[in-house]
Amino acid sequence: MTENESRALAIAAAVVIVLPIIMVVMFYPYGQGGLAYHPSMNSLIFDTLLLAVYFLPALNAYKKRDYKAILVLNILLGWTIIGWIVAMIWAMKTDPPIYAVKS
User: Fold this and answer.
1) How far is CA 73 from CA 6, 41, 42, 54, 81, in A?
2) Of 52, 55, 29, 51, which Cα lies nearest the Cα of 42?
3) What's the CA gap between 53 and 71, in Å, rounded?
4) What are the structural domain ranges in the chain?
């Protein structure tokens, strides 16, 4: 398994495991005090999580050569599920090695 694949797997596992826990912590105590007692706080946390998930392909591709192109694709077509998936697959691909040409 390459470094990029292991990083993508760790991000996916974090989203699958941590996001439901955060959702339970946010919504369970509603009306009983706690974190989700104030509706505006609830909305702020939820919107922040949605924004982080939306830009997950761009965050995953931060150190790649095609980072700007992936970011533009994510911004323009990320709202479609297909555009988000294409950006995520592109972000998870490894960069081809650069070979120096001797003259």
Assistant:
1) 23, 30, 29, 12, 12
2) 29
3) 13
4) 1-54, 56-92
Q: What is the pLDDT along the chain (103 residues), one digit of tens a residue?
A: 677 677 777 777 666 666 666 666 666 555 555 555 556 666 777 777 888 888 888 888 888 888 899 999 988 998 888 988 899 889 888 888 888 788 7
Q: Which of 26, 43, 48 is nearest to 35 (CA)?
A: 26
Q: Could you tell me if 47 and 75 are in contact, meaning their C-beta atoms sit under 8 angstroms apart?
A: no
Query: What Å distances lie between residue 102 and 95, 99, CA to CA?
Result: 22, 9
Q: What's the whole-model pTM score?
A: 0.57
